[in-house]
Amino acid sequence: MKRPKATEDPDMLPEYDFRGAVRGKYFEQYQRGTNLVLIDPDLLDAFPDSASVNRALRQLLQSRQPSS
Question: What are the distances in angstroms from CA 15 to CA 6, 12, 41, 63?
């Protein structure tokens, strides 16, 4: 395969090498979507992983729901 000239796309630098790349490798995952949320560093001790964050959010939601 002939290597394209660097002038064809100004955003592509000559040192970029896509040999071995797989087109669409993450396409399905991207289509499903993702919810990436970053927490502030001061909260890392209280919420070290996603399970602890999910637990706290569920408790917050339960406390906001009116009692039956």
Answer: 10, 8, 35, 55
